[in-house]
Amino acid sequence: xxxxxxxxxxDSGTIESISKILGDTEKGLTGTEINRLLQECKIENIDQDxxxxxxxxxxxANRQNKDRYSNAILYFIGQVLKPTRYINDKxxxxxxxxxxxxxxxxxxxxxxxxxxxxxxxxxxxxSEAEKRVNRLKEKLQQRDIHQEIFKYCNKEIVNENYFHLVxxxxxxxxxxxxxxxxxxxxxxxLVDEAFSxxxxxxxxxxxxxxxxxxxxxxxxxxxxxHLLKGIFSMFRNTTAHEPKIIWQIEENEAIDIIxxxxxxxxxxxxxxxxxxx
Length: 277
Hints:
This protein is mainly α. Helix content is 60%, strand content 2%.
């Protein structure tokens, strides 16, 4: 975004929201960082002995009132989001970028991955802003999460609803197994019916993840069965019966769980069907 262009001023509510993201959050700027950045951006630090976000709000509002434009505030944000500041703390960079983008989207701005601010189409609703900027979706895409999870769980991802995201993801896996096997069960029963085998009794699996020609390959099939049963027992059954306030899931834990379910989906992408029935 060109620094020469004059950008319309932000309203006071927007300045407050920006100030709180930068100064009143767990990952917010320290007092020392605020002092240094205000000085670097040539924004007067008019109230140094008050709460950090209020100090930023007063400094931003004072400068914008003098300029009648938001350029100085946007420049400050650009300085905060310099990627080189976050070599060892990408999560902090991602937090600032996502949360600020939710606000800036209403003015037609977007902070890119390189920390630069570009102009984009404005949004007019909170839902539009959240759909455009979603930290969880971005992290899942970086993990190369299977598309079946995005297909079944888009609403949960957009809303960053970790509890129900895990629940719906396990349901997506059960549905995929039902579709492949033409069975109607659920959970451990479904897994047994779909994947179990006993060659001595001429019982072949409806779904095989390999040729089952060696003991090692047969053990892989059994191991996959145990993995699926573990997923349904630990995640599907728990989320189905425990209230959300009791069984709480943090973002990183949810992503790890989704990665396991995604792995199971990917194994189902490359199946070996035994000539059995």
